[in-house]
């Protein structure tokens, strides 16, 4: 097997040029949620196509009803090595409030922060800086060897920050072209700046909005109070009854499909040393609020939740109004793990809410999306390869973590292309993605590219 | 004693002009809870001063730290007749939600509803239409006789809908000027559109606003859900715990000072034939929602309540936002009866709320007024005079009822000026006060003025 060191040395020697290329991409204002920036989104896609072509990929822009996809293909050194699909997104979040930025969000720079070099600007961490780590690894292979260690397909999306409306239809329409042995997704983070991480679990989501209707108009609480149904009382009882005194969700069958995490995973999470103080302290809290007798990481990574995201009813302006409202509403989200079924949980929730309605009141439901949780198998050989490769590159060994939020692409790859994903990324907690003054550590960018080189070689060598 | 008929005929003949004057007052947007309408409140006070001056009152605007009072005096035909203080309020409730109004709330009109003529617009029934019935009765006496049958002082307030913060200090500072033999308060209703009523019991009110603070910022529910405290959950539990399963309020000592009503009163109320169906049917409900095993009139007239008047927290706009809010708020009012102590109840509520706060969250309280319930004596001679006058005017004899709402002024008159009140008003159940499409029956306005003429004459004649 060919030595990897010359490839890694290429990455080191070419770092300044790599940063310059990334900066060119960062200067393109590819904000996908705002139609005013549609041409910029296309420009970013075009930039990537040209860059991938320059290192030998067969790359093209693929139109969608929204912003275009970039699809690129490159063969591997041997047909024996697995075929991987790499996913990233070139669109970025809006930049408002602009006045909170220290510099123009689209004028990237290298700065020093807490004694470490960082790249600043919108998209540095989410996700242009991340996706370019992979492109730079490929470039180094090509420069050193004239080939890639395995067959690579690349998919760059331009609508990740605006709900990915074109993604599923595109995957379905291009199944054969996009199907690979597994996917590499680079849109996640490290455990800390010395410890790389692979995300193996992602929570799913069920969103529901309920409106409780009582009287057919707002009422005077002096006149009707004590006799007429108050929808805020009914709603409060519904919401208060969602959790029992141990913090468990009370819905029938809610925990069906939820298993305890394996003891070795529990052990490795315990070793990460996360505490309620470390996690909640920075936001002004100290006590974990969910299920009792669970570690903090378990609560946010491996346990399902019910959270009320919004509530409104009656008068909430200045002063006081002695009104009994005609209606009251709440938005509720459930985070799902493992094999929980989103539609069963939605049905259990609706049954529960209906059971709390007085005979003369009614409730209206409105659905806000549903996706199951994702649990990647711990016994995939690629997981072991990635863990070794990352541990070789970084000061500390790689850890397997989970994520509280959802990355819908992972579910889509599983469902539509029958393909598992390996989630590796180099973002850090304090990268301020979606906020002013986004940054990406120069080390994330540099060692990220080196990590991908190691992973690609590892995948080829494992055969 | 001079004949009353010519005075009543004056009222009949001047009805169109009376309605026009009321409309001019209704067009002034005197919403007292919203600072944006302060100038409109003053304009309404000024309008009333000018109108009272035009019929010979010595009238003036009296500044307060909030909206001004109107005070006016007029001597009686003889010094032998009692001196009465008439009270009403010129401020009105906010008009939101504006989209539910059939017409501009401040563009009053005469319409036909259920075969009867009604005046429509904010304040028609609460309380501008009501207070003008008294002014129109005085105008008719002056036009016909050049005098009033007894000495009259008028007090119009501009903060009744916002907790009357300036009222007590004003009464204390102007005791000598405002003290009369008794007060006439026109802010109540009839039993039905044929049956006039005198209110002898009034529920008191304690208003509280609470804000639960958790994290020091809004959080992403994917990242923090299951670990961070959710203030909407805490607030829901607080509110859901205010009532037990029998509908009783759970606060410590809440029912101290509450006695069962005398059996003769219970009997007379039963004879009014009110049912849940009759009371709740018109607003689209059917089941009494308060304490179990109480008659409907008992629930709204003689039992204390706790009602949530408004709630807000998190995201309640269009669509969905997976946020855990930093804070959530609710406005709560307690209706009090008999000898319940408002400050003891406020303290019990605050203790209860504090007991529900997790150690790392905090609650902020904001007081919105407090007044005890009122029970007026059944043996006042003025009560007999008013009962006779009202029974003469309307198709059916007057009945003595209680009221679910609060009129704090009655307690203040009792406590600060040592003066009992006679509560007579012409509002109807379906007047939609505090709601969109408020109305006042033209008959209430017309026969209300005639009723006051009869009462004023009756008071003078009784001496």
From TrEMBL, chains A, B:
Gene3D superfamilies: 3.30.70.360, Zn peptidases
Residues that span the membrane, as ranges: none
Positions of the Peptidase M20 dimerisation domain: 200-360
Gene Ontology molecular functions: metal ion binding; peptidase activity
Protein known as: Peptidase M20 dimerisation domain-containing protein
Superkingdom of source: Bacteria
A Gene Ontology biological process term: proteolysis
Keywords: Hydrolase, Metal-binding, Protease
Keyword Metal-binding among record annotations: yes
């Amino acid at each position: 097997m060919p030595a990897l060191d010359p490839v890694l040395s290429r990455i080191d020697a070419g770092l300044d040029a790599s940063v310059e290329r990334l900066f060119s991409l960062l200067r393109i204002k590819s904000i996908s949620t705002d139609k005013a920036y549609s041409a910029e989104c296309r420009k970013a896609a075009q930039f990537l196509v040209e860059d991938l072509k320059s290192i030998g990929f067969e790359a093209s822009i693929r139109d969608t009803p929204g912003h275009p996809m970039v699809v690129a293909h490159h063969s591997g050194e041997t047909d024996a090595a697995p075929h991987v699909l790499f996913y990233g997104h070139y669109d970025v979040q809006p930049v408002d409030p602009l006045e909170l930025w220290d510099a123009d969000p689209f004028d990237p720079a290298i700065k020093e922060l807490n004694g470490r070099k960082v790249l600043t600007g919108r998209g540095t961490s989410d996700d242009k800086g991340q996706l370019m780590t992979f492109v730079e690894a490929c470039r180094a292979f090509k420069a050193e060897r004239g080939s890639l260690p395995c067959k690579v397909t690349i998919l760059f999306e331009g609508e990740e920050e605006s709900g990915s409306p074109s993604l599923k239809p595109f995957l379905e329409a291009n199944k054969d072209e996009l199907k690979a042995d597994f996917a590499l997704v680079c849109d996640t983070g490290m455990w800390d700046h010395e410890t790389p991480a692979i995300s193996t679990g992602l929570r799913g989501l069920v969103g529901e909005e309920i409106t409780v209707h009582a009287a057919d108009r707002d009422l005077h609480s002096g006149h009707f109070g004590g006799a007429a149904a108050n929808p805020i009382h009914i709603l409060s009882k519904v919401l208060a009854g969602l959790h029992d005194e141990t913090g468990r969700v009370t819905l029938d069958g809610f925990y069906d499909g939820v298993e305890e995490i394996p003891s070795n995973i529990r052990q490795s999470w315990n070793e990460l040393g996360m505490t309620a103080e470390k996690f909640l302290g920075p936001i002004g809290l100290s006590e974990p609020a969910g299920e009792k007798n669970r570690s903090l990481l378990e609560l946010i990574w491996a346990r399902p939740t019910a959270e009320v995201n919004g509530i409104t009813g009656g008068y909430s302006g200045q002063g006081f109004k002695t009104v009994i409202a005609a209606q009251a509403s709440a938005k509720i989200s459930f985070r799902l793990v493992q094999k929980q079924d989103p539609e069963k949980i939605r049905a259990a929730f609706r049954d529960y809410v209906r059971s709390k309605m007085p005979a003369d009141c009614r409730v209206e439901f409105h659905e806000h999306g549903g996706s199951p949780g994702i649990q990647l198998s711990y016994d995939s050989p690629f997981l072991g390869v990635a863990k070794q490769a990352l541990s070789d590159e970084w000061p500390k060994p790689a850890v397997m973590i989970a994520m509280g939020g959802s990355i819908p692409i992972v579910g889509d790859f599983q469902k539509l292309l029958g393909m598992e994903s390996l989630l590796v990324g180099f973002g850090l907690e304090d990268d301020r993605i979606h906020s002013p003054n986004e940054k990406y550590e120069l080390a994330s960018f540099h060692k990220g590219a080196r990590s991908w080189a190691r992973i690609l070689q590892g995948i080829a060598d494992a055969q």
